[in-house]
Design a protein that fits this description.
By secondary structure, this protein is mainly α. Helix content is about 55%, strand content about 0%.
């Protein structure tokens, strides 16, 4: 993975527990990547409302952003026509310090060809490029 080690961040158990309660999601020990397993494209509006509510702490917002990105990925269609997508990119841009790991991870830098990456990758790479020099040295 191409995420610089000083930016590594992962969902906390407390954040997962809190979000599972908030959204009525299962949270069992066999769920290895909870934040991606619970993604649901039909609930993107609900996820964005919660993220922007001001009620979540940084760990919850970090974890929820992973769920939001996976939910958009699960849409399986062009993101450029979804009116919610620019909002997500703005949240990433505005909160890039919180989401530095996420931005690097979803940028999928080990794959130069967009065809070999996720739907969100080309867009998230643009966020990374705007902040990359600062984040590398953070």
């Amino acid at each position: 993975m191409s995420v610089p080690e000083h930016l590594w961040r992962y969902p906390t158990a407390a954040a997962v527990d809190s979000l599972a309660r908030r959204f009525g999601f299962p949270n069992t020990p066999d769920m290895q990547d909870w934040e991606w397993e619970v993604a649901d494209a039909a609930r993107i509006d609900e996820f964005l409302a919660a993220y922007e509510s001001g009620e979540l702490d940084d760990d919850e917002r970090f974890t929820l952003m992973e769920t939001i990105l996976q939910s958009f990925e699960d849409l399986g269609e062009s993101l450029s026509v979804d009116p919610r997508w620019p909002r997500v990119l703005e949240l990433l841009d505005r909160n890039v310090d919180l989401h530095a790991y996420t931005v690097f991870y979803w940028s999928c830098l080990e794959n130069e060809d967009d065809e070999d990456s996720w739907l969100v990758t080309p867009y998230v790479r643009r966020v990374l490029e705007r902040h990359r020099s600062r984040l590398k040295g953070a």
